Structures are given as structure tokens and as C-alpha cells.
Amino acid sequence: MEVNVPIRREEPGFYMFGTRKIYAKVMNNKLVVRVGGGFMSFQDFINNYALAEQKRINELIASGDWDME
Question: Quick check: helix, strand or coil at residue 29?
Fold first, then answer.
């Protein structure tokens, strides 16, 4: 399954993953994302959250409220 969610750097360590602000860093040579009280691998984060974020973006586009700028 392919999901298209834009990622934009906001400031060091912080990124917009679609409409969601995330904190990401390299730990033990792996990219991880802060989730709750811990970290998960970026791949696990994508597997868990990308589809829901894509759905949210599609709903915003349909309502005319999506502005990536």
C-alpha cells in the first residue's frame, strides 16, 4: 500500500507529518519518532499512522481547508 503524506521540517528535530507535528531523531543509527512516553522506529510510525493521516488530509482537501504552506 502506498500512502502520500508530506513531511516538512519546522525546526531542528521537529517536523510536520501531514497535519501532525512530530519529533524525530537518530538513535542507535536508526531514525525514531517520539510517540507518547517513548520512541518508535520511523517505519513502525509510518505503518501505524500514515493511513489515518492520509485520510485526514483527504478530508481537509475535500472541505477546502488543506493548506500545506
Answer: coil
Terminal-to-terminal C-alpha distance of the chain: 27
pLDDT digits (tens, 9 = 90+) for 22-45: 999 999 999 999 999 999 999 999
Q: 41 CB contacts (<8 Å, ≥6 apart)?
A: 30, 31, 32, 33
* Rounded CA separation 64/69 (Å): 14
- The rounded distance, in Å, linking the Cα atoms of 33 and 25 is 7
The SS3 of residue 23 is: strand
Q: Report which of 44, 4, 40, 6 is spatially closest to residue 23, judged by C-alpha positions.
A: 40
Q: Which three cell numbers stand for residue 59?
A: 478530508
pTM of the complete model: 0.85
